[in-house]
Structure to design on (209 residues):
C-alpha cells in the first residue's frame, strides 16, 4: 500500500502532535531512534517518558493508522506508542510492515512492539522476518533487532526459535560476516538481547507508575 500524507486522510495534526514534538531540542522520533532516553544522564527523560505514556494511552487507533501509513518517522513513533500501550490488535499490521521493510529505521520499533506483546504469535512474526532476511548477507536491515527481540521471547515463552539461527557457522554468523564486509559493526546475540530487555524493562517500569 503506498504511503499517504496524514493530511490527505483527515489527520493532518498527528505528525506535529506525536512525531516531531521536541525534547531538549530533539524531535520525539529522533529520541526514540537513538535510545538516549534509556541512559541515566539525559536530563529530559522524565518529561519525555510521561508524555510518551500519556500519548500512548490517548492516541486513537485511527491516528495510529494515519501514522503507520506514512513515512519512517511516523511509523517508528507509531510502533513505539503501540508497544508502550500494548495494543495487540495492531500485531498483523506491524507484522506486514516489518516483513515488507519498505522504509528505513522503523524496523527496530516494530521489534520493540512485538517484544512487548510477548506472545507466540509475535515470535512467529520475528522468526518469519529472520527466515526472509538473514540469508541476505548483502542487506543490513533490522536482522539484529529481530534476533534480540526473539531471544527475549524465547526466554519468556520457554521456546527455542533462535537456536537454528545462532548455531555455530549458521545463518547469524554468516550474516554477520557478510555485513561486516560492508563495513557494519557486529553485535553478539547476548548484546542484542540486552538491548531489547533494556527497552522493554524501561516500558514495564514506567507503565507500573
Amino acid at each position: 500500500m503506498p504511503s499517504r500524507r496524514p493530511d490527505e486522510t483527515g489527520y493532518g495534526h498527528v505528525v506535529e502532535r506525536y512525531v516531531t514534538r521536541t525534547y531538549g531540542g530533539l524531535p520525539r522520533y529522533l529520541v526514540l531512534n537513538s535510545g538516549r532516553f534509556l541512559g541515566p544522564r539525559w536530563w529530559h527523560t522524565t518529561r519525555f517518558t510521561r508524555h510518551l505514556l500519556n500519548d500512548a494511552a490517548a492516541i486513537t487507533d485511527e491516528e495510529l493508522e494515519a501514522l503507520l501509513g506514512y513515512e519512517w518517522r511516523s511509523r517508528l513513533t507509531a510502533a513505539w506508542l503501540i508497544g508502550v500501550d500494548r495494543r495487540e490488535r495492531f500485531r498483523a499490521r506491524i507484522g506486514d510492515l516489518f516483513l515488507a521493510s519498505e522504509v528505513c529505521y522503523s524496523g527496530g520499533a516494530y521489534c520493540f512492539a512485538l517484544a512487548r506483546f510477548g506472545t507466540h504469535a509475535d515470535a512467529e512474526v520475528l522468526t518469519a522476518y529472520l527466515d526472509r532476511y538473514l540469508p541476505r548477507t548483502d542487506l543490513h536491515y533490522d536482522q539484529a533487532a529481530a534476533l534480540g527481540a526473539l531471544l527475549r521471547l524465547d526466554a519468556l515463552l520457554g521456546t527455542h526459535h533462535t537456536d537454528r539461527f545462532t548455531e555455530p557457522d549458521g545463518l547469524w554468523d554468516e550474516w554477520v560476516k557478510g555485513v561486516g564486509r560492508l563495513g557494519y559493526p557486529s553485535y553478539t546475540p547476548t548484546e542484542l538481547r540486552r538491548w531489547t530487555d533494556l527497552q522493554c524493562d524501561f516500558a514495564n517500569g514506567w507503565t507500573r507508575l
Q: What stands out?
A: The chain has a mean pLDDT of 93. The first strand starts at residue 22 and ends at 23. Strands lie at 22-23, 26-27. The chain is about 65% helix and 0% strand.
